[in-house]
Each structure stands twice: as structure tokens, then as C-alpha cells.
């Protein structure tokens, strides 16, 4: 392509100018997170409706592809589920009876607030980071629905992530499997504190989260439930993260490392629950 | 004007395709990098200038939505678009091998730089693992997307050229 030197800037100079523009932008956004948030918000006004529209189109395609599934399989599944329902109903009756007993005993121990009922709201995922390096996604609830930064996000009754940016009617969530994420957790009945690190390597290899800094003498075993800890800064107490799959001693002979299979299914996050209650902040 | 509008729409469509449709409700999957493909296509078809502009705005869009800072991806895509513009000399309309090869090399370089800055700097040194599990799938995806979609971008470009000629004459 020939350039009209009078009209167009030479690509070389354009490159240099835009290069410095990029450097300036990086510096600006590093030092002014609030102003950057405003820029993101303005861009979001135009783009997010498009993303939401495209997402519902994707959902429609997904659903219409499922229609072609095997009907025989569906019938068998239906049969199985009917049996399951009757079993579950029986169990439910039994559990209700036990629940009354439990609440009586709990009130005796005054443990009412041990597992508080959090206020939740349902949200839909409409856009996912595609780079392959980071696990962040957008949900279609924002500050108008009470979703603020540091709200915890659940999926399949397990911890999925935390809101890191919130705008008027959408919010950005970082999944716990993201390489930069850390959760303080408790393992099993003993409540051993550990820090659960998201790791792309472990996740891609065999789908594990890594719990590090467990005391070497801690009484934990495979199959123990891992929940978010009381002492966590940003995660509310008592949300299941996953189950311990394997334990290994560290080379320093002071700590153990455990592999944790997460409860949430990260390959199928369509609808998520957002806990509206946030962790109480303490200013030291 | 028509060209600017068309390219804006193409960038938006690519962005939506890669962040919404192809990564639909899956946090662990990878999606072809349509924006990289678009940057590369315009770099080859129209030269350095348009390559770097398409790359800049496409990268900025990703920065705004998915990066903690504004600018790094814009810079990366821009440089890729500019360098791809040097292949404009060898460009012929029928040749599809050149864009396919370039897009493969592009995404390898792109992901290597991302790995270097965001992972290696945080002491994640298992390059072999990340190469096999993240960089290669992404590069292959992008190459496949280029092989399939390059002709569509090409015909859009051809139509724009025809319109521009008609307006002139």
C-alpha cells in the first residue's frame, strides 16, 4: 500500500506515538485505579449489552444443540431420577425429624450463629477471559443488586471466586483457580488453617487446588472437607471449597501440602450464586 | 469512513466471539484469538499502518475488560500488527499459507511474552508444561481459525476496496 505522505502519518511515527501512549496508559492505570475504573465503566456501557446479548445467543445455541441428544438416554435418566426422588423424599422426612432435634441441641450449646444463613442472589456468567492464562469472568449483577467488591461467589454449593470489580449492573469475578488467588481455609474437624492457592499448573494437570502451610502435626486425612476459614480476610466463614485428595510432606519438614479437589465444576459455570454479605473489615 | 466503521464492527465481533461464544461457560477451556487473527490479516492485506491500528484498538479492548492495567495488550497487539505489515510486500490474494504460518508464529510469540511477564516473573518456571498445555493449544486454535476465517476477512477487504474505487471515480 502506498502512503499519501501529505495526508497520512508514516507508520513508523504512528508506532512510536502509540507506543508511548501505551506506556503512559500503563503508568496512569497503575497509579490511578479509580480513574481507570471509570474508563472501564464507560467502555462497559457500550460493550456489556453486546456481550450479554451474545451470551444469551450462545445459551440458545447450547440448548438447541442439546435437543439433539439421545431420547433413550433421557428416558433412562428420567426413570433413575424418579427412583432417586422417592428415596430423597423418604430421607427428607427423616432429616426433618433430626433437624428439630439438632436445633434443640444447638440452642442448648448456643451455636446458632455457627453457620449463618447468608443472603444470596443468583447471577449469570456472560463473558469469560479467553487468554488461557487467567480465570476471570463477568456476571450480570452489579452494585444495583447489592453485589460489591469482595462478595463471594458460589457454584454447585462450592466456592467459585470473589468479586474484584463491581459496576452498575455487572461485576468481574476472579475464580479461586486463578493463578493469583489465595484463600485461607480450614481442613476437617480439627480446623487446621491452610492457605489454598489457585495454580494453573495443578488445575490443568489433574484439576487440583493446592493447600500449603499446613502444620506437620495437624490431624488431617484424605477425604476431609475444606471450608473457608474464620480468619480469612475476604471470604465469609463456612463455605465448602473442596475435599482433600492427597497429602504430602514438604521438604522443610515443618509443613505439609495437600491437594484439594474443588466442589465447583469450573467447566460449566452458567448460573452462579453471589453471597451479598461481606466479610467484616477491621482497620488496624 | 466506511472502512473505519467496518473495521470497528469486525473488532467488536472478534472480541465477542473470543470472550463470549467460544469460551461459553467454561473457565478452563481456551478460545482462538480472533483479535490476533484480525490484526495479522489487516497487517498483511493493508500494510503496517492498518495492522498496528487494528492491533492497538483490539488490544485496548481486552485491556479494558480483562487486564489489571490498561495498555500492555494494546502494545503487544500493536507491535505484532506492525511487524506483520512488513509481509505486505509478499502478499497475494490467493495465498493462504503465508497468513496461516504467520498467525501460528504470532501467537507463539504473543503467548511466550505473556508467559514471561505474568508467570515467569512470579517464579512459575515450568515453561515446558505451560508450553504444552496453554501456549500450543492457543496457537493451534488461532491457526485453525485463521485457515477458516481468513478468506472472509479477505473478501470484506476486497469489497471495501471496490467501494472506495467507485467513490473516487
Key terms for this structure?
heterodimer; A: 284 residues; alpha+beta; Thrombin, subunit H; 2 domains; 6-stranded antiparallel β-barrel; 6-stranded antiparallel barrel; 12 strands; 27% strand; B: 169 residues; mainly alpha; Arp2/3 complex 21 kDa subunit ARPC3
Structure overview:
The complex is a heterodimer of chains A (284) and B (169). In chain A, helix 1 (11-31) crosses helix 2. Chain A has 2 domains: 69-114; 118-284, Rod shape-determining protein MreC, domain 1 (Thrombin, subunit H). Chain A has helices at residues 11-31, 33-66, 71-109, 200-206; strands at residues 120-128, 136-139, 152-155, 158-166, 171-175, 182-187, 192-197, 209-215, 225-228, 240-249, 255-262, 271-275. With 284 residues, chain A is an alpha+beta fold. In chain A, the strands form 2 sheets. A 6-stranded antiparallel β-barrel of chain A has the order 1-2-5-4-3-12. A 6-stranded antiparallel β-barrel of chain A has the order 6-7-8-11-10-9. The mean pLDDT of chain A is 85. Chain B is mainly α. Chain B has a single domain, classed as Orthogonal Bundle (Arp2/3 complex 21 kDa subunit ARPC3), CATH 1.10.1760. Helices cover 76% and strands 0% of the residues of chain B. Chain B is built from 6 helices and no strands. Chain B has helices at residues 2-21, 34-46, 48-66, 72-84, 97-118, 127-168. In chain B, helix 2 (34-46) packs parallel to helix 4 and helix 5 packs across helix 6. Chain B starts with a helix and ends with a helix. The chains are: A alpha+beta (284), B mainly alpha (169). At the A-B interface, helix 1, helix 2, strand 1, strand 2 and helix 4 of A face helix 1, helix 3, helix 4, helix 5 and helix 6 of B.
Amino acid at each position: 500500500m502506498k502512503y499519501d505522505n501529505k495526508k497520512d502519518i508514516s507508520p513508523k511515527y504512528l508506532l512510536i506515538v502509540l507506543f508511548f501512549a501505551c506506556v503512559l496508559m500503563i503508568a496512569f492505570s497503575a497509579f490511578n485505579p479509580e480513574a481507570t475504573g471509570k474508563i472501564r465503566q464507560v467502555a462497559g456501557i457500550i460493550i456489556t449489552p453486546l456481550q450479554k446479548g451474545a451470551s444469551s445467543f450462545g445459551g440458545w445455541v447450547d440448548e438447541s444443540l442439546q435437543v439433539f441428544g439421545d431420547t433413550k438416554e433421557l428416558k433412562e435418566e428420567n426413570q433413575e431420577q424418579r427412583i432417586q426422588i422417592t428415596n430423597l423424599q423418604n430421607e427428607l422426612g427423616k432429616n426433618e425429624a433430626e433437624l428439630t432435634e439438632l436445633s434443640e441441641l444447638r440452642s442448648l450449646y448456643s451455636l446458632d450463629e455457627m453457620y449463618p444463613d447468608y443472603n444470596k442472589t443468583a447471577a449469570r456468567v456472560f463473558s469469560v477471559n479467553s487468554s488461557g492464562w487467567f480465570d476471570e469472568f463477568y456476571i450480570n449483577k452489579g452494585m444495583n443488586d447489592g453485589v460489591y467488591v469482595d462478595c463471594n461467589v458460589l457454584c454447585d454449593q462450592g466456592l467459585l471466586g470473589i468479586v474484584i470489580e463491581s459496576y452498575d449492573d455487572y461485576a468481574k469475578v476472579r475464580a479461586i483457580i486463578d493463578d493469583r488467588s489465595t484463600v485461607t481455609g480450614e481442613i476437617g474437624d480439627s480446623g487446621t488453617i491452610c492457605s489454598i492457592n489457585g495454580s494453573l499448573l495443578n488445575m490443568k494437570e489433574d484439576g487440583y487446588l493446592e493447600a500449603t502451610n499446613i502444620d506437620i502435626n495437624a490431624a488431617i486425612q484424605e477425604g476431609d472437607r475444606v471450608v473457608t476459614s474464620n480468619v480469612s480476610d475476604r471470604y465469609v466463614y463456612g463455605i465448602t471449597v473442596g475435599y482433600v485428595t492427597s497429602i504430602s510432606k514438604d521438604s522443610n519438614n515443618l509443613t505439609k501440602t495437600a491437594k484439594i479437589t474443588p466442589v465447583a465444576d469450573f467447566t460449566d459455570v452458567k448460573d452462579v450464586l453471589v453471597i451479598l454479605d461481606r466479610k467484616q473489615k477491621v482497620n488496624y | 469512513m466506511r472502512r473505519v466503521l467496518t473495521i470497528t464492527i469486525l473488532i467488536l465481533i472478534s472480541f465477542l466471539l473470543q470472550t463470549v461464544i467460544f469460551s461459553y461457560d467454561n473457565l478452563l477451556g481456551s478460545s482462538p484469538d480472533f483479535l490476533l487473527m484480525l490484526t495479522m490479516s489487516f497487517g498483511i492485506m493493508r500494510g503496517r499502518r492498518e495492522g498496528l491500528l487494528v492491533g492497538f484498538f483490539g488490544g485496548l479492548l481486552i485491556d479494558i475488560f480483562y487486564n489489571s492495567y490498561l495498555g500492555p495488550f494494546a502494545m503487544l497487539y500493536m507491535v505484532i500488527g506492525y511487524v506483520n505489515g512488513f509481509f505486505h510486500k509478499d502478499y497475494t490474494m490467493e495465498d493462504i499459507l503465508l497468513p496461516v504460518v504467520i498467525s501460528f508464529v504470532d501467537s507463539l510469540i504473543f503467548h511466550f511474552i505473556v508467559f514471561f511477564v505474568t508467570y515467569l516473573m512470579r517464579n512459575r518456571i515450568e515453561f515446558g508444561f505451560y508450553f504444552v498445555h496453554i501456549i500450543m493449544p492457543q496457537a493451534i486454535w488461532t491457526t485453525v481459525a485463521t485457515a477458516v476465517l481468513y478468506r472472509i476477512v479477505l473478501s470484506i477487504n476486497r469489497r471495501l476496496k471496490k467501494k472506495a474505487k467507485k467513490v473516487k471515480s
